[in-house]
Amino acid sequence: MSATAAAQKEQPATRFAKDQLKAIIERIERLEEEKAALVADIREVYAEAKGQGFDTKIMRQVVRLRKLDRADRQEQEAMLDLYLGALGMRH
Amino acid sequence: MSATAAAQKEQPATRFAKDQLKAIIERIERLEEEKAALVADIREVYAEAKGQGFDTKIMRQVVRLRKLDRADRQEQEAMLDLYLGALGMRH
Amino acid sequence: MSATAAAQKEQPATRFAKDQLKAIIERIERLEEEKAALVADIREVYAEAKGQGFDTKIMRQVVRLRKLDRADRQEQEAMLDLYLGALGMRH
Amino acid sequence: MSATAAAQKEQPATRFAKDQLKAIIERIERLEEEKAALVADIREVYAEAKGQGFDTKIMRQVVRLRKLDRADRQEQEAMLDLYLGALGMRH
DNA sequence: ACTCCAATACTTTAGC
DNA sequence: GCTAAAGTATTGGAGT
């Protein structure tokens, strides 16, 4: 069998993998699209707020800070878990 | 009126702005949450694919290239429209 | 003048740039070396501590958390600056 | 002895461990600081080079490649030593 | 020792 | 055009 023919008539396993890959890629692209839409929404909200006289720079900082606080709280919990675990305790 | 009293009994306009700002910030945070969920979903899809033997690095490149292609195509269409428009034609 | 000769006897400006680039690259490499040495030192300190019965996982978490706290404090200050700036005040 | 008193008057061994841990953590943090300073230095060198018209992206590639070369050379030397050692020779 | 996961550093893109 | 945020890739650490 020639190389060209081989390329035309792939192994079932390879074909399956190809289809599977295609499906996965398309699924990712759909998710990326949804994400892009959300990013656009967020941008729009900021723009509207700016139009109403709010300072977007400060707003972004506030959002960032509140997010950081949440992360910090989670870290503290993780720390507690770690300590309790080290002491042989579970909660 | 003392400064303290002023702080306790704000101007209606200020109060309104404050509530409005709060609403906007919370709306942004909700959108950010949804976005974070999507990012997590995408990461999970990649992780699954990796578990099935696919190379995620290459997959990411594929996704990026296809995105570029779409952008190019859109640009070309926009260019075509521009030219057709300049010639008084529509399609 | 042949191309080969030109390559051997470059323009002063080009030569200068080349020497300068060499110096910069070497400087970066020295800094990178120092950095690698520090990373090795840190790893060694953790290893020693482990040998004395300390839990490195917890230690790393502690270091991370303290770093996060510092970052948080800086963010708060930045926030304050931003607010004061927005109110036309400086400190 | 109540639990509270126990907490106030710890075992010598525990106290010692605590002080020791504190010392280790602080030592690590100092090393991390130095490391962060070096990272900042490196970034600054790149920034300066960029200001003088050098392409930082290419510079980074150069640094990376040279690092790889050094690693390769070390590997080859190690291999040579191994072979020579197997033949009962030293160099 | 080797694989998996986490973190850091680099790159690119978006906002101002 | 520059600064800052997001995404991506590489490195280092933990667990088996």
Strand-residue fraction of chain A?
under 5%
Structural class of chain A: mainly alpha
Helix content of chain A: over 70%
Radius of gyration of chain A: 25 Å
End-to-end CA span of chain A: 65 Å
**Helical run tally of chain A:** 3
- Main sheet of chain A, how many strands, which sense, barrel? none
Low-pLDDT parts of chain A are: none
Order of helices and strands of chain A: HHH
Shape category of chain A: flat
How many DSSP E strands of chain A? 0
- Oligomer class: homotetramer
Instruction: Identify the biggest protein-protein contact and residues per side.
Output: A-B, 28 and 28 residues
| Arithmetic mean of pLDDT of chain A | 86
Produce a short descriptive summary.
4 copies of one chain form a homotetramer. With 91 residues, chain A is mainly alpha-helical.
Could you please describe the fold and organization of this structure?
- The structure is a homotetramer.
- By secondary structure, chain A is mainly α.
- Chain A has helices spanning about 5-10, 10-50, 55-85.
- Chain A is flat and about 60 Å long.
- The termini of chain A are far apart.
- The model of chain A has no long low-confidence stretch (mean pLDDT about 85).
- Chains in contact: A-B, A-C, C-D.
- The interface between A and B is medium-sized, with 28 and 28 residues.
- The structure holds a DNA duplex (16 and 16 nucleotides).
